[in-house]
Amino acid sequence: LAQPCDPEERRLLESYAAEEEGHAQLIRWHFEQRSQALGKPFWIQRLFKLATSRQTMLQQMYVVEVLAAVFYGAMAAHTKDPEARALIRRLLRDEARHIRLARELLARELARASFAGRLKARVFATGLTLGMGVTAWVQARQLAPVLGETGFRYSKKLIRILTADLDALFRPPSEGHRPLGWWWSSAASTA
Q1: Which residues fall within 8 angstroms of residue 63, CB to CB, at 6 or more apart?
Q2: Which of 6, 25, 80, 155 is positioned for an S-S bond with 136, CB 3.0–4.6 A?
Q3: Cα(184)–Cα(189) distance, rounded to whole angstroms?
Q4: Nearest to residue 16, comparing CAs of 134, 95, 132, 133?
Q5: Across all residues in the chain, what is the average pLDDT?
Q6: 23-60 per-position pLDDT tens digit
């Protein structure tokens, strides 16, 4: 929220941040109910503090939401605990909204950028996609007790999803933007 944006987008990002905090509270509660300790935050989260532009922040937000959705989906499919599966599916429904919001805000930001700005962002997006592929591989190894030995499967899936969207995101800007009112009409499942 430190990056400048218009009032509508600021309200959306504040609502998004509140939902993310709600997710963290649900996860903490789930672990506390089972007397289990939460792990340390994933190492990649420290890199997000380095975002020096709104465009960079939105690219990171979009990629991390897709990463979260890939792993929440995998965890929901493989966990044996019905309460954990229900929680993960609840979070996964919100992740779909978060991906859409991040993508639409990013598309707006890219449309405002100059040709050189979009080119620079495209190079960053390509590097970020590859970096997230490595991150997904590391995360899959950490989650092997639940997911099994998946190797590069989730890493490849993440890269495939993100790469498929690059051309659409970096298309020359069109007139106008999609309205963002859908965010308010589609209630979060953690509300």
Answers
A1: 128, 129, 132, 162
A2: 155
A3: 13
A4: 95
A5: 82
A6: 989 988 998 988 888 777 665 666 666 667 888 888 88
